[in-house]
Amino acid sequence: MQKTTHLFKSFFIEVGEISYFAGRFFREVFSRPFEFKELLRQCYNVGNRSILLVGVTGFIIGLVLTLQTRPTLEEFGAVSWMPSMVSISIIREIGPVIIALTFAGRIASGIGAELGSMKVTEQIDAMEVSGTNPFKFLVVTRILATTLMLPILVVFGDAIALYGSYIIENLKGDVSFVLYFNKVFNALEFSDIIPATIKTFFFGFAIGLVGCFKGYNCEKGTVGVGLAANSAVVFSSMLLFVLDFIAVFVTDIFFEI
Question: Hey, which of 4, 35, 184, 204 has its CA 20 to 30 A from 124?
Answer without folding.
Answer: 204
